[in-house]
Specification:
Elements lengths: L10 E2 L12 H13 L6 E2 L3 H8 L3 H13 L3 E4 L16 E4 L12 E2 L37 H9 L5 H14 L1 H13 L5 H14 L26 H7 L3 H10 L1
């Protein structure tokens, strides 16, 4: 039987009640650092003062003051090495910390789930609770944005024809030369004019580049577009197409290209 592995990144849980106490930033960070090393089942940890100072980015004296305050407020029990140093032959052992429950109703001491090599950390994957321990402070993961349609998709939705390899090259060239937004707008103008022809779109793009988007040719010199029925409605007349432009189906098509 395969072993169930918790594939989440290393994390540890903190009781909600911690926010009911007036901890300073120094005390809070030291408390978190001790929790990081605590055995999940026993709540025992023994990181050195130097380790805590490095994790919390503070001096050893600040760490020692925070430990005294946490002990006094009932967050932790501290067992200190009280044996004589005997000159320089023996170094003091690290303090042994026991993390205490803040509410009295927690069956498990908050601890760490980790695969890293901490001496006081249990290597057993932690309990995954169905309770929302963060309540309204749960970190919200940003939903991935929907990618904009490609120029191929814009063409196929606008004209209803599949993109051929040769046309794909022309679409790529147009996007490189004029930009995505211009190609999208030119396709939209072709749909509004009911001219489903790529050459017509190219002519629009060339005119915009030559004359500018704000300039238009006089109406008398603009050739009237040749009516081409939609591919799915080959028998449609110009009058029927004018009525079709008012339908929800046509408006939905315009939304795709807008």
């Amino acid at each position: 039987m395969s072993k169930l592995i918790d594939g989440r990144p290393a994390f540890f849980m903190v009781e909600d009640a911690v926010f009911n106490f007036s901890l300073t930033p120094y005390e809070g960070w030291v408390y978190m650092a001790i929790l990081k090393h605590a055995n999940r089942q026993t709540g025992v940890a023994f990181p050195g003062v130097g380790t805590l100072a490095k994790l919390c980015q503070m001096s050893k004296s600040q760490v020692l003051r925070a430990i005294d305050t946490l002990e006094r407020k009932g967050f932790i029990d501290v067992e200190r090495d009280s044996q004589p140093l005997q000159g320089e032959k023996r170094q003091r052992k690290p303090n042994i910390y026991t993390v205490k429950s803040l509410t009295g109703s927690v069956s498990q001491t908050p601890g760490v789930v980790s695969t890293s090599n901490h001496p006081s950390v249990s290597q057993t994957p932690g309990v995954v609770s169905t309770r929302d321990n963060n309540q309204s402070n749960t970190t919200r993961v940003k939903e991935p944005e929907v990618a904009a349609p490609t120029v191929y998709q814009l063409y196929e939705k606008a004209f209803g024809f599949s993109v051929t390899p040769m046309l794909a090259e022309e679409l790529n060239d147009a996007e490189s030369s004029y930009g995505y937004a211009w190609v999208q707008d030119a396709l939209k103008e072709a749909v509004n004019s009911n001219v489903r022809n790529w050459k017509y779109v190219q002519a629009i793009l060339e005119r915009w580049q030559r004359d500018g988007r704000a300039k238009t040719k006089p109406a008398a010199k603009t050739p009237a577009p040749v009516f081409v029925p939609p591919p799915d409605k080959p028998g449609m007349t110009p009058e029927e197409f004018a009525a079709y432009q008012q339908t929800p189906e046509y408006q939905a098509l315009k939304e795709v290209l807008s």
